[in-house]
Every structure is written in structure tokens, then in C-alpha cells.
Amino acid sequence: MRIYRMTATFGKLEHAVLELKPGMNIIEAPNEWGKSTWCAFLLAMLYGLDTRAKSTRTALADKERFAPWSGSPMAGRIDLCWNGRDITLERTTRGRVPMGTFRAYETNTGLEVPELTAANCGTMLLGVEQTVFRRAGFIRQTDMPVTQDEALRRRLNDLVTTGDETGDADRLAKELKELKNKCRYNRSGLLPQAEAEARELEERIGEWDSLENHCRKLKQRIGESKSWLRSLENHMLALDYAEAEADAARVAEARDARDRAESTFAAAEADCTRLPSQEEARNKIQQLQQFQTQWNALQLQLQQLPLQQQAPSAPEAFRGKTMEACEEMLQEDTQRHERLRKGKVWLLWILAAALLLAVGILFVLRRQTLLGIGGLVAGGLFLALGLGEKHRRGKLAAQLEEKYGSPLPEDWRQLLQQYRQETEDYQRLRQERCALENRLEAQKCMLENQRQSLCGSQTPQKVLELWQQVISRWERYSAARRELEYTEKYLNALQSMVKKPVRPAMEDALTYSRQDTQRLITDTQAEQQRLLNRLGQYQGRMESLGERDALCLRLEAVQQQIGKLEAMYQAASLGLETLNQARQELQRRFAPRISKRAQELLGQMTGGRYDRLNLSQELSLLAGARQEDTLRDVLWRSDGTVDQLYFALRLAVAEELTPEAPLILDDAFVRFDDIRLKAALEILREEARHKQVILFTCQSREKDILR
Q1: Residue 46 in 3-state DSSP?
Q2: 309: phi > 0 → left, psi -120 to 50 → alpha, else beta; which?
Q3: Is the Cβ–Cβ distance between 281 and 474 less than 8 Å?
Q4: Helix (H) or strand (E) holding 90
Q5: Average pLDDT by consecutive 10-residue portion of the chain (707 residues)?
Q6: Is beta strand 85-94 parallel, antiparallel or unpaired with respect to 75-82?
Q7: 3-class SS at 508?
Q8: 653 in Cβ contact with 623 (< 8 Å)
């Protein structure tokens, strides 16, 4: 098969086209260009997209990972050559199923290719299943090791050991294994089923015999229970007869009580004939109680009236004056105090006197006696005037301080404000008390009128007692009527319950009470019903088990079938064992054939360093270099050498299983050095002579080496 062209709307690819040529194709592109996407697209076009896969925390399902980034439906087309025919493959999205529609037709004529379907397209074109192709001709650096796979193992085994891929040996082994499993597989199969059926039949026969024995014992117990129940019922009839005679006496007593209740009711009814109604009495009592409550509340309010307060005493300075006169006097005294505080004329006179005295003394010292004496006289006069004026002002200030009790006008104003506030509070409280007295007096007059209308000349307590007596007489009437109704109902109930006494049919020798007898009857009936139910269950179970003779015949037939199945199982086991021995003999040729080709390729890549290679049936590799004495596992090799070992193995497997299919490589040589990379490319050039090779790489080394 050879691919001409791929067109994809897949992941980041939007109507992208990749042209390919026969032989070697190297697609060099940087990371995130879409190389791995093209590889995944090729697999999806050949084998379809697994829409049942679910995304996990560590990996996305292909249907989500490669959903077109543009939001377009997932679709693709491949033009290829198969068996000399140019064929076009198309897959498009149908509804919610990505790549769900498949079509294969001849490119030139458009005729359908019926042998290619959505399910078998990859297998028909490449000759192997998808899992085999991914482990052989599809090489990626991320999954270079060849892991075990049942389809790959079967293909390699059939091809290498028998020379063809018909799978006759596998089918024969499968048929023998199916026959063996059909006879016995763990706890399933015909033989375990027959053995289980035989055990079940034996258990059913044993259960049938046990049930028959239980039924016989149950019937005996049911007969005993019926006899005991008849004795208890006869004892109950005897108790009923005795109670019926006692009930007749209770009816007579109830009739006498009813007659006494009638007499009492008639007397109470006559006593209440001329009384006011009970409703009227209740209303009167309620009105009297409300009046008493209101009267007591009024008396309490009268007792709690505030005491009459004394008028506030006026200060000595304001006594006998109105508030306006006090304001005027305070204003005049304040102005007078201000003048006394600011007037300093006496100080000027004293200064003048001091000056004149100094001048007089100066003249006397200069022997100008006449002028000196005149100055001293004038100074003494001015000094006397100054001191007199100071004394007069001090006396006036002392009078004001004595009048108000303070030398400061602010204190005089505060004293007047306090006197005014006390006077106003006294007037307000006096008015409030007068208003409260008037309201309580009006309420008292109203209550006096209400008491006159309710009680007249009697006291409220006396009237209340009279109305309570009326209520008591009506209550006696009601009690008598209830007693009469109760006695009549009791008498009627007794008369309806009394039954005609019936003598018991048998002699009663039991001494149980009625409660004990009823309990015993109930328990016996319940026990009898349980026995009958259990007997019915046993008999129903016996019917469901079937006839005992039929069960024995079936057991014999099953035991014969078990003998035949055991012989068949042993024959199938012997055949499968013989076939496995023959297969193991053939499989001894499997590993050397693949190992030889892989060893040749590995030696070519490593310049002959590794000349020994061994492949186990589980596809694990052991390799040895020339200077090494033993073969070592790949865990002992470097990462690059491991990649080269598995690359050689994959090429060997691909040559055996997919000789005509393209060889796809995705960054497979990242860890190859230049020398071994050159050798690997030479091998690929040789492979490209007879098949198409497509190499995706993010490096330029491959093209440089090939050039």
C-alpha cells in the first residue's frame, strides 16, 4: 500500500494537506507543528476513532484531544494505492459521532469498494489489526519498546511457526478449550451444573422426607390444640352464664339510681323556676367584680396623690418683689457695681496729693517756707479727698455683697434664675395635682352612680353574694340533669349488654378467670393457625419439590450424564495438553527467527558492537556486546541504545507481519547519535526500496545526513 495524499480537519489541522511520494519521505517541522497529529489522523482514518474511550485525569480521549480547534466537524480524506488500484478513503462526522461516516471508492471512477468498511479498512489495507500495526510498523519515540499483545503474539506465532496465518492450530486449541470449559470452568460448565443438579436432587429428596415427617407431627399437634380449644370455649360459656346473672342485679341497681336522679332533678327544676337566668346572674357578677376592681384602683390612686408642696422661699434680696421688679433691681445693682469697678478718680486725687506733698517738701528744703506750707496743705487736702472717695466706694461694694451674698454680678444673676426656676416648678406641680384631683373626683362620682344602679342601698359585697347563690342553684340544677342523663345512659347500656344466660353444654372443671381464659383462647387459636400455616407451607413445599419417585428417576439420569461429561472433560484435557506440547515444540523456532533479523539490524546500526541478541516469548530483549561475557537486560543499557534495540526489533517484526504496509516514524531518532543515526537511515533507505517510509522529525540531522 502506498499513500499519495492526506487531507485533514483534525485537532489543530484545518483542511490541511500532506503530499507524500513513493519510497522515503522526511517531513521536518518544529514542535507543535502537527507531526503527532498527522500520525494520529492516519490511524483514525485506517482503523476509526474509539468514541467509547473516556478522558482521565492524566490523559484525554482521542475524540476530545483531536477535536478541531476551529469548531468544525472532524473529517479527513486519504488518497492511496492498494493492489494496483487508486482508492480514496473518506471519514466525516455524523451527528455527535466524530468520524462516524465512512466511504471507500475508486479515485478515478467513483465506484464503491465494497470489501473496505469502517470496521475492517485498516486490517484489509495493512493486513494486521491496529494493535499489531502500532507495535510493528508505527514507530514513535514515546512508545519505542514492543509490549506484549495477544493479537501480535498470535500473528507472529502463526506466521513464524506454521508459515501461514490461517490460525488452524489456534482455532483447534480454542475449540478444545471451549469444549473443556463447556464441561468445567471453575464453578461453571455442564459438569458443575450436572453435579450441582445432582446435589440439589439429593437435597430435595432429603428435604421431602423431612417435610413428610414434620407434617405427621404437625397434624397430631393440631388435633390436641382443637380439643384444648373446645374445653376453653366451654369454660367461657360457663363464665358468661355466671356474669349474665350478675348483670341482671346490676340492671336493677341502675334502675333505682335512675329513679333517685329523677326525683333530685324535679326538685332542682322547681327551685329554679322563679330565679333570674344563669346568663343574667353571670353578667351581674361580672359587672360587680368590674366595679369593685375600678373602685379599689380609684382608692389606691387617691392614696398615692402627691403631697401639697410649700411655695419656695425667696432670697432676702428679692423678698416681697415681683419677678419684673427683681429683674430691674438686679440690672441697676449690676450697673452700679460696674461703675464702682471702673471708677478710679480717688486714685488720681491720691497721686495729685503725693505730687503736691513732694513739691511742698521741696520748697521747705529750699527755705521757701510759705510756698512749702501751701503745697503741704494742698497735698493734705487732696489726700483726704482721695481716701474719702475710696472709703465711700468700698462701703457701697460691701452693701451689694451683703445684699446678694456674693461680690460677683454673675452669682447675683444665677441666684435670680434659680429662684425663677423654683417658682415655675412649684406652679407646674400645683397645676398637675389640681388636674389629677379633678379627674379622680369625676371618676369617683361616676363609680358612685354605678354602685347606686347595681346595689341600691345594699353593699356591693352583699349583692355579689346574692347573685352567687343564684349561680349555685342553677349549677345544682345542671348537675342533677347531668346525673339523670348519665343514669339513663348507664341503664340503657346495661340493658343492651345483658344477654340471656345460656348453660354450657359440658361440665366445666376449669378455674381460670375471664381474662386468662380469653388469653388462652387467643393464644390457642393463634398457635392452631400457626400450625395450620406451617402445615400448609410444608405441604406446598412438598408439592413444589415434586413427586419423590420422579425425583429419584431424575437423579439416576443426572448421575449417568455426569459420568459421560467427566469422560468428555478428560478427553478434551488430554487433547489440549497434546496440542500445547506440539505448539511449544513449534514455538522454539519463533524467537530465533525474529532475533536473528533484529540482531543483523542492530549490528548494522552499532557497527557490529552488539553481536548477540535474544528475544523471549514475552518480547523482552537481552543483548550482549563483543567484550561482554553475558547477555544483559535493556535496563543495563543507555536510553539511546535501548531505542536502537527496539528499533531493530520493530523493523524485524514489521518485515514479517506488514511487508507491504507503509513504515511510519514519529521522532524515533531523537536519542540516536549521528553515527548510529546515519546507519539507521541507511537501513530505512533500503526499506524504502520496496515500501513507503514516512519519517516525521523536529530536527534537520536526517536531511543533512541523507544529502
Answers
A1: helix
A2: beta
A3: yes
A4: strand 85-94
A5: 94 94 92 91 92 86 90 94 94 88 93 92 88 82 56 51 48 72 77 83 86 88 87 82 77 86 87 82 84 82 70 70 79 76 66 78 77 76 74 73 75 78 78 79 79 78 82 87 88 78 78 87 90 88 85 87 83 75 57 74 79 60 59 61 79 82 89 88 90 91 86
A6: antiparallel
A7: coil
A8: no
Cα-based angle 348, 353, 359 (whole degrees, multiple of 5): 130
Report pLDDT for 162. 42
Q: Give the Cβ contact number of residue 22 at 10 Å.
A: 13
Q: At what angle do helices 150-162 and 639-657 cross, to 10 degrees?
A: 60
8 phi, psi to nearest 5 deg = -135, 135
Beta bridge partners of residue 2, listed in sequence order: 81
DSSP string, 166-202: --HHHHHHHHHHHHHHHH-BTTBSHHHHHHHHHHHHH
Overall size of the chain counted in residues: 707
Q: Could you tell me which of 223, 239, 232, 227 has the C-alpha nearest to residue 520?
A: 232
Distances, alpha carbon 299 to alpha carbons 1, 289, 293, 296, 437, in Å:
125, 15, 10, 5, 12
Cβ–Cβ under 8 Å, residues 474 and 275? yes
Note whether 652 and 597 are within 8 A (CB).
yes
**Dihedral over Cα of 467, 472, 477, 481: its sign:** positive
Minimal CA–CA distance to 621: which of 606, 632, 611?
A: 632
Helices marked H in 111-167: 121-126, 130-134, 150-162
Phi, psi of 543 (to 5 degrees): -65, -40
Q: Report in angstroms the alpha-carbon separations of 456 from 267, 289, 290, 448, 463.
A: 32, 16, 17, 10, 9
* Residue in this structure with the C-alpha cell 346473672, named with its chain if needed: 245
Q: Which residues pair with 139 in a beta bridge?
A: 665
Where helices occur in 513-617 by DSSP H, the ranges are 514-545, 548-587, 590-605
If you ran DSSP here, which 8-state letter would residue 141 be given? G
Three-class SS state of 663 = strand
| Of the candidates 589, 592, 642, 585, the residue with the CA atom closest to the CA atom of residue 614 | 592
| 70: Cβ contacts below 8 Å, ≥ 6 apart | 9, 14
Residues 6+ apart with CB under 8 A from 373: 360, 364
Q: 3-state DSSP helix/strand/coil percent for the chain, to nearest 5?
A: 65, 10, 25
All cell numbers assigned to 323: 419677678
Amino acid identity, residue 400?
L
85 neighbors 106 (Cβ within 8 angstroms): yes
Helix (H, G, I), strand (E, B) or coil at 536: helix
Which of these, 12, 5, 21, lies nearest to 40 by C-alpha position? 12
Q: How far, in whole angstroms, is CA 580 from its chain's centroid? A: 58
Query: 413: which 3 cell numbers?
Result: 444673676
682 CB neighbour count, 10 Å cutoff: 14
Judge whether 278 and 471 are in contact, CB under 8 Å.
Answer: yes
